[in-house]
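Hi R.,

Here's the chain you asked about this morning:
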Amino acid sequence: MRIVFQLPLLSLAVASTLGFAGAVGAQEITGAGATFPAPIYSKWAAEYNKATGVKVNYQSIGSGGGIKQIDSKTVDFGASDMPLTDEVLKTKGQMQFPTVMGGVVPVVNIKGINSGELKLTGPLLGDIYLGKVARWNDPAIKALNPTLALPDAAIAQVRRADGSGTTFIFTNYLSKVSPEWKTKVGEGTAVNWPAGAGGKGNEGVAAFVGRLPNSIGYVEYSYVKQNKMTYAQMQNSTGAFVAPDETAFKAAAAGADWNKSFYQILTNQPGKDAWPISGATFILMNKLQDKPAKATETLKFFAWAYKNGDKIADELDYVPMPKSVIGSIEKAWGEIKDASGKPVAFR
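And the predicted structure, written out as tokens:
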């Protein structure tokens, strides 16, 4: 599924108040990538449209597609939930910055089971996706959930069919908690899945689980809320069972050192309240811009989002970036320059 968000062009008066260099002439800004942030980008887009009149097209095609399109310079910005290392960015001549943080959540479709009733551990979740734990009444599941009426039914695993940063977060977590998963499958935006069927995008996985009895999948939390899906509690690194919500995502993000590097992975973080499958979502841009006006307009949009988008993030249970980190992000935008070496944006 592709989601396209459109925003009209920012006025010259508003541009001057944001303190950006470069002419206001980009008629259309294009971006593509992660489905993880699609709900919040949609809301930001609607409010930005009301406030300014700027036009932006964003295609929700998955992180793998976003990385490929920014690499080929067919979009003005790419979006990925899998951060690129500083070394890879240097090789590509790109920079990245985080927009919001959130959580990837196991969801199930089991008759009679409500949200938060099913408890899972990381190793058990790995065994389910390895196909080792194949039925809902398996002793390993029953031991954690002795009071639940779990059916004697085969588990239908649902995962992403496309290159996905959500998959990266999920498989990165499983690789940390399950040595067998790390050895046999590993982590990445796309992996060799031992079992299950694929859905395209967070939207596709949510729809697949919604219509398939006795299934389990993983989606970003906003899709859980939007689709009223049944989520599982997860045991975190301290041994506590936690439910996914803004507090749990904030607890997982607390240890990130964004001032050191924007390359931060937030899975299996310490803290009794931390959601173990948390992550940030990132924007990728080329440092050397052959269309500097469009790069300027792109940064204006994200500057507006950082300044005005926190309430929307809270409503959708994303975690906004701390103000101190936003300062570092805007400073890093100075790395994005035109052919003459002039930055396309300034603070």
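Residues 292-308 form the longest helix (17 residues).

Let me know if you need anything else.
M.
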